[in-house]
Fold this protein.
Amino acid sequence: MPPTKKLKVDKGGSSTAQHPFTRLPAEVLRAILLDAAQQTSKRDWTSLQQVLLALCSISKATRAALLAEAYFHVENKDIRALTLLARSLKRHSGLGAHVKELSISIPNVYSLELGSKKAKNWKGHSLKHVLAACTSIQRLTLVLGPANASSPLTYLLCDLTAAFSPLSKLAKIHIDASELWMHELASILAVLPSVRSLDIDALLRGDTHTNRLDSSTQRPSLEMLKVKKNSLASQHVAWLLEGQSALKKVEMAFPGGGQETKRSFSALEKVARGLKSIKISSSWPPPKTPATTTTSPAENDPPLVSVLKRAAPSLLELSLVSIFAPPSSLDKIFSLPFDRLKKLEIEDTAQSGMRVALGKALGGGGGEGGECADEDAMDVDEEEGAEEGRMPQLEEVVSFGTKRGNLATSETGKKFNQVCKSRKVRWVVQ
């Protein structure tokens, strides 16, 4: 029987005698192990994390080299995973410091037995402990269900200020839920001074608490503001936008009628200079005649025109809907100096007239519905488009709000496509 070699085993129970590479400098060891993990795992974070955690178990040296990488991004898709994470963070006090990106999903914030206080405390306690332990996170995603959950964040955490205050380094926050009240959002933003990106995939609602908000309420300086849907009045929209001079991207719904529209766009106009992306929809049902509803008798231009005049020189992406950009305003909008614009989305319906106006601006034409709005404008004129020099950097036009087959195969659609090709612009019909 051949002699056996004694192995030196560290306290964790793993062998170091068989792994001399663990004595390499930390940075070299980390680079080698990371490359091995990437080669071994599939091309997704979950499998890579599993490999990294396996390598961490080899020895103290590999654990020290890879622990921060293994816990850089933590994603929990159910309450069981969240509970296990909370226990692990409690058992290893320094583990949460390695987490930089945290994604938590709770499919049902309520218990299976409605009114069970124990279940509520169990889920809420786990979430509170994870947020308190991961004080270094820079990116947070919270997905809370079900679809009809009422105030899910407050239901779980009770005191939002206390729950979010440890996250002083948080730069990006994404909340996906059925609803979020404006006063809840204000409480969260007041204790997150480092947030630069705010993404609310929930119905953002105002109430009597929200009406008490004023300019003295603390807010972070945002670069990206995205609110998928809301029922906010103009004063709430103005409060969100007030003082946000660093904004680069705005994607949100605005009130779609009368003075509410004017006040909301007036707030946007104040922070429009320097914006790179504007995507605005209507948060209220559009009126039957959007052109007359959004335009004051004393003014020919809708409020959006003033916003775009300020933002045009810096804009890279723009999305237009007919309720805020009626046909009477399109020639003026498309004549603005969009010198850097690369992507333009238009509501392409017979009533909007956007494709017709855009075709003319690009040096050719487009058709409204199935007929030609202007026969002379339908001819492609590359020289005219070149002389006007409108939107010289435009790369893509996206048509939405119409049927793909009807538009792409129609005669007017084909001619508009020729205009785009003459300008080397890609036309996409959604």
Q: What stands out?
A: Confidence is low (pLDDT under 50) at residues 1-18, 290-298, 365-378, 380-387. Residues 334 and 361 are 6 Å apart (CA to CA). The longest strand covers residues 172-181.
